[in-house]
Design a protein that fits this description.
By secondary structure, this protein is of the alpha+beta class. Helix content is 33%, strand content 21%. It folds into two domains: 130 residues, Penicillin-binding protein 2a (Domain 2) (Alpha-Beta Complex), CATH 3.90.1310; 325 residues, Beta-lactamase, CATH 3.40.710. Helix 12 packs across helix 15, helix 12 runs antiparallel to helix 19 and helix 14 packs across helix 16.
């Protein structure tokens, strides 16, 4: 038994080769580690550098300053002011209850709701965008760990709602969303830059490594708008929409020679400096994106087409058959009973029957070509986002009744800028001018459309329309001869026309002897008792045109006693809708 125990306690002797093998394996592993270290640090350096960069290097965006938008005289319509945004790595935030209360108060937020946003914020969170710099500085002075600031820009619109539809707005990142801001984003926005920085373990930028890309600043854009005239147009439109309880309205003021849009106002409007209360329906630039039937403002083009085709002369007598014209099952009416009118009187009295008879004397293709050349059925090509072409059906699809009604502006749709532009043909002796929302170097080349004789003849008729015996004596301007045309049309609703909803319009030019300005006015659904263009839209034209002519120091071509209004017992000359 004793010998067995001694035998069991005898030391175990290992073979000598096993120790050598362990030493060899350790040496081999050591050589592998040395080789891997040499490979990563001397040959394949990119891996460790990329890993280090991902942990301690960041590329920080440098925002570009957005270019200003100005009126034609350099008055600012949109400018970018420096602001700061506060952001955080939510998991790094450390704040005492007192710090958090003060921080939430500066951000005008409830502390509990702000804390909940942080909890649900993930790896990165914007706590507040576009703060005034002084507010951001007070927030950062609280020294809350994990919260950082970033410099940005916020767009400010000095003209507010007066030019909102034209200038448009940007989003929180200063990118264009509406209007000129959107249409000229590439020009105004520039390109953001960037820089690479080293950050410490707390996420603080401690060193600039390099500038990766310099920001490319946005460029300034000068519009054709005259801000004084813009305020004037907006004020008078606002007064008219209120007085006539209209649903909406629009005004366009054109330089008749250059085609530049000097004012473009719409109602209802909105405040572009308060995006929180932005209603999309109010953001539409109705003068370019909405259409309506122009009514009798289209009659001058029907007459011009027939004059150019030598079918009529200004003194040609037109049989208006007592103010009624039967075409198949349909009947065209005039507001007043006339047995016969000269072509000039057809415009002066705004006779639907006379216009229809003139239109039916022409091939349908001739009338269609005239309207298409005047720009109807095509966009005005201003470059404004969302501008529409309106509707002008091909002549081959016209029935006789459609040809007759198109003669006085029914069965065709236009926008207000289109309509104003079309009247440049009467202001420029037969040449149609392109229109522009941007300031131009000088008058653009016109497109010949009518002969000079035709344009002057129609201009004379338009001047007769604003005299005492015409449909728009309220469009007259003291000291200036004025030419223009009223329009009154039932609104299209469903598959027909609404019986008691109207669009009232007036387009005119002055001074009539040498036109310099064109003003187009439209009121949508006036509902205060009057709806005829001569009673609703013509007075707005008169006020805007008078103030604009005087503001631009355009010499008068008439007597200051040139107003010839109808007598108190005179019958108002109206147009049938």
């Amino acid at each position: 038994m004793k010998s067995a125990i001694l035998k069991a306690q005898a030391p175990i002797v290992l073979p000598s080769w096993r120790g050598s093998m362990v030493v060899a394996l350790l040496g081999l592993l050591f050589l592998v580690l040395i080789g891997r270290s040499v490979y990563l640090q001397a040959i394949n350096t990119g891996f460790l550098q990329s890993q280090g960069n991902s942990r301690f290097s960041r590329v920080v965006e440098i925002p570009a300053h957005r270019g200003r938008i100005t009126d034609r005289h350099g008055e600012p319509l949109a400018i970018s002011t420096p602001v700061k945004s506060l952001w955080a790595f939510p998991e790094q935030i450390e704040a005492t209850p007192e710090q958090w209360e003060k921080f939430a108060a500066l951000l005008e937020s409830d502390p509990g709701k702000l804390r909940q946003r942080v909890v649900e914020g993930g790896e990165f969170l914007f706590l507040k965008r576009a703060l005034p710099p002084e507010v951001a500085e007070r927030a950062m002075s609280l020294r809350i760990k994990g919260i950082y600031e970033q410099r940005e820009y916020r767009r400010y619109y000095p003209a507010g709602e007066v030019a909102a539809h034209l200038v448009g707005i940007t989003d929180i990142d200063d990118n264009g969303q509406e209007g000129i801001e959107l249409g000229h984003q590439a020009w105004l926005g520039g390109k953001s830059g960037s820089r690479r920085v080293i950050i410490n373990r707390r996420g603080d930028a401690v060193e600039d490594l390099e500038g990766v890309r310099r920001p490319q600043e946005g460029r300034e854009l000068a519009l054709s708008i005259d801000l004084k005239l813009q305020y004037l147009a907006y004020r008078e439109l606002q007064a008219a929409v209120t007085a006539h309880r209209a649903k909406a309205g629009g005004v366009v003021v054109l330089d008749a020679i250059s085609g530049e849009i000097l004012a473009l106002a719409n109602l209802p409007s909105y405040n572009p400096n308060n995006r929180a209360k932005l209603v999309r329906d109010k953001a539409r630039n109705r003068a370019l994106t909405d259409t309506f039937e122009p009514g009798s403002t289209l009659k001058p083009f029907t007459i011009a087409a027939a004059l150019e085709a030598k079918k009529i002369r200004p003194d040609t007598l037109i049989n208006t058959t007592g103010g009624r014209l039967q075409i198949g099952p349909a009947t065209i009416h005039d507001a007043h009973v006339y047995e016969a009118l000269t072509v000039e009187q057809v415009i002066q009295k705004s006779s639907n029957v006379g216009s229809a008879r003139v239109a039916l004397s022409l091939p349908a293709e001739t009338l269609w070509r005239t309207l298409a050349q005047a720009g109807f059925g095509n966009t005005p090509q201003t470059g404004f986002p969302g501008e529409v072409a309106g509707r002008l059906r091909p002549a081959k699809n016209w029935r006789p009744i459609e040809q007759a009604t198109i003669a006085y502006g029914h069965g065709i749709s236009v926008n207000l800028v289109q309509l104003a532009r079309a009247y440049t043909v009467f202001a420029n002796d037969g040449d149609l001018k392109p229109v522009s929302l941007l300031k131009t170097a000088g008058p653009g080349a016109g497109q010949p459309m009518f002969s000079r004789d035709t344009a002057l003849a129609v201009r004379k008729m338009l001047e007769m329309a604003v005299q005492a015996s015409g449909t728009a004596p309220k469009a007259q301007v003291p000291g200036y001869r004025v030419a223009g045309k009223t329009g009154t049309a039932h609104k299209v609703e469903g598959n027909g026309y609404a019986p008691n909803k109207y669009v009232s319009s007036f387009v005119g030019l002055a001074p009539a002897s040498n036109p310099r300005l064109i003003v187009a006015v439209m009121l949508d659904e006036p509902s205060a008792g009057q709806h005829y263009g001569g009673a609703v839209a013509a007075p707005v034209f008169s006020k805007i045109m008078e103030a604009a002519l005087r503001a631009l120091a355009i010499p008068g071509d008439g007597s200051h006693q040139n107003l010839l209004l109808p007598g108190t017992d005179a019958v108002e000359v109206r147009e049938e809708t």
